[in-house]
Design goal:
By secondary structure, the chain is mostly helical. It has helices at 31-70, 73-106, 109-143, 150-179, 197-201, 206-234, 241-275, 277-284, 319-322, 345-374, 382-390, 394-410, 430-459, 487-495, and strands at residues 5-7, 13-15, 25-26, 29-30, 184-186, 192-194, 296-303, 308-315, 413-415, 419-420. Helix 2 packs antiparallel against helix 3 and helix 7 (241-275) packs across helix 8 (277-284).
């Protein structure tokens, strides 16, 4: 067998080709599983903030444009109301994202060494094009309304919104390449070397995943905004034009984008089945092969050890057409995949259903809002408001469930079909990874917990006439380290 074979603890057994074989554990977890848990924990915290701010940046740009076009106080009031939420969320997203980059060196140094020639430049492009763009114009967006002209301030708002989208584009290109690698060769030292950057950046899954993720971000923002509006409507603030406007705009987004997201998600599913069939088999719960039609399994209890779906509730033959096959198509199941190459089916099966279920509920809320709008009861339908309030965090839950489906479904590979996760981990002790994981948990819950509480506090306030945005020190903005001369000195110089 060669190097020692060891159990990773997530449902499959791997043999480390590099001979790591570290059997030391921390709280009965080995270094590989702890490294995965740490990255999953930090990514889960980080991902919810960009998922929210990508849509919120565009929402703010639209509000500012409407204010400049109409000069209706309501749009300015909403801009100043949500800009404070955006500033806090953006800051927490940046801070939580920096932490992840360090883990590429501390916990995943083998992956960084082998895949660095491909992913390194793409990550650098994200910094150079997106982060610098956002950072350069964010200050003008937050503090510049009364310091620069309306045109420049509007341009800054658009650039921040564009920057968030560009950032998502580069990150998703990197992550998509890890799922559908293309345009590379492997050196004699095992490094992945770029051969065709167009194939690397625009790899087979990238366009679908980009569209699905950006749309999910807009829906996430829409339902947060809609949930906040519903909260205030339920508290008898239906007379407030800001509350009415934010709820109306959010429900328009839900009605239009949620059905579109279902279509985009279906197309991504077909693309995933083409390039990562094992992941889709886990998502759909198909342990067995079929020779006369593929059922659609709605619910069940996956038993990966036994290789079967217990207590399955399914619709016969429906699964084939959904996957682009005929009603009586044949299909190989997970029983044709080696056990060592199967992802954890239970996690993927249920996270996929959470994501899809929430997506269907979003479309239903959007349809409900259209009916209420046509009846002239959008701001008076209290049951709609109650449901919208409950659905407020649904986008955050859906994007997290979708991320779990995507990333866990790729296992046991970190680069699908090329590099096993067990072979990508750094040669670090389990105690070191476990201790840092506990520190992350403690710090994150304190720091980001306080941030979330403050965000909820801001959202709990009603947008009022004369709402002020992010406040700054009065007077001109000075370069760090430079101070203006005392009045007497300035006057003496002028007289001279």
């Amino acid at each position: 067998m060669g190097p020692e074979t060891y159990v990773t603890g997530i449902g499959y057994q791997r043999q480390s080709s590099q001979g790591h074989g570290y059997m030391d554990t921390f709280l009965d977890f080995d270094a590989l599983l702890l490294a995965r848990m740490q990255f999953a924990f930090t990514v889960a915290f980080h991902f919810i903030f960009p998922a929210f701010t990508i849509g919120l940046a565009s929402f703010l740009a639209v509000l500012n444009a409407l204010w400049l076009k109409t000069r209706h106080e309501t749009y300015l009031r909403l801009f100043e109301y949500w800009i404070k939420v955006f500033a806090i969320s953006f800051a927490m997203g940046v801070v939580s994202g920096i932490v992840m980059s360090y883990q590429f060196g501390t916990n995943w140094s083998v992956f960084s060494d082998r895949a660095g020639p491909v992913i390194g430049p793409l990550m650098a492009y994200e910094i150079l094009t997106a982060f610098f763009l956002e950072a350069g114009f964010l200050g003008i967006m937050l503090f510049g309304r009364n310091r620069v002209g309306d045109g420049l301030h509007m341009f800054a708002c658009v650039m921040v919104a564009v920057g968030t989208a560009i950032s998502a584009t580069w990150i998703l290109s990197v992550n998509s390449w890890m799922h559908t690698p293309a345009g590379f060769s492997i050196s004699n030292t095992g490094q992945y070397l770029p051969e065709d950057w167009w194939q690397i950046i625009f790899n087979p899954s990238f366009p679908y995943r980009l569209a699905h993720t950006i749309t999910a971000a807009y829906l996430t923002t829409a339902f947060v905004v809609g949930g906040v509006g519903a909260w205030h409507l339920l508290r008898h603030h239906s007379h407030n034009k800001g509350v009415r406007t934010m709820f109306s705009m959010a429900m328009w987004m839900a009605a239009i984008v949620a059905p579109l997201q279902i279509v985009i998600g279906h197309e991504q599913g077909l693309n995933t089945y083409e390039h990562q069939p094992t992941k889709v088999l886990a998502m759909e719960g198909h342990f067995e092969s079929y020779d006369d039609g593929v059922p659609l399994i709605l619910f069940g209890i996956p038993d990966q050890a036994a290789g079967e779906m217990r207590y399955a509730l399914s619709l016969p033959r429906i699964g084939g057409p959904i996957l682009g096959k005929s009603w009586d198509a044949e299909m190989d199941g997970l029983d044709t995949v080696p056990d060592a190459l199967e992802p954890p089916v239970g996690v993927v099966f249920w996270s996929f259903r959470i994501m899809v279920g929430i997506g269907v509920l979003m479309a239903a809320v959007g349809l409900w809002s259209l009916v209420s709008r046509l009846r002239g009861r959008l701001h008076d339908d209290r049951w709609l408001h109650r449901v919208a309030l409950v659905m407020g965090p649904s986008g955050l839950i859906a994007v997290t469930a979708g991320w779990i489906t995507t990333e866990v479904g790729r296992q046991p590979f970190v680069i699908y079909g090329e590099l096993l996760t067990a072979d990508a981990v750094a040669p670090v002790a389990a105690s070191a990874v476990g201790a840092s994981l506990l520190a992350f948990v403690a710090v994150y819950f304190v720091v980001f917990g306080a941030g979330v509480v403050y965000l909820l506090h801001l959202m709990g306030k009603v947008p009022l006439l004369g709402e002020t945005g992010v406040e700054s020190e009065a007077g001109p903005i000075r370069t760090a380290g430079m101070t203006s001369a005392p009045v007497g000195t300035r006057e003496a110089a002028e007289e001279a």
